[in-house]
Amino acid sequence: MQYICFMGIIRKTKSVKVLMNEFKNSSSAISAKQLINQLSSQFNKTTIYRVLDKLEDDGVLHSFLGKEGIKWYAKCNGCSTTEHKDLHPHFQCLDCGKVDCIPTTVTLPKIPNRQIKVTQLLIQGKCESCVDSI
Description:
CATH topology: Arc Repressor Mutant, subunit A
CATH superfamily: Winged helix-like DNA-binding domain superfamily/Winged helix DNA-binding domain
Structural class: alpha+beta
């Protein structure tokens, strides 16, 4: 498990441990709103956002915007402090709200005179559980 690296020193703070455990125990993405609701008795929302931002900067998590502009976070795979390499789409169920990463490679088009740094692809529909319940 990777923790916040501050000036070359890995800091295993309580807030980092608690947040990383949330992602360790979940196979799907988790919204910032959900984390704040779950952890509000332990940390204020400023601390939660600060740690999430730092974990994203360190290449541990990546974020994307879901339905209604809510920010979601998921574990990175092969990313670093200098580059997020796991470009993939995310799927959000319009019935139950579940959001997860789709394990497929996305090839971005070359755009003349442009350098792409960040991209987001959100696919919305019904997840396997909601499709089966029809």
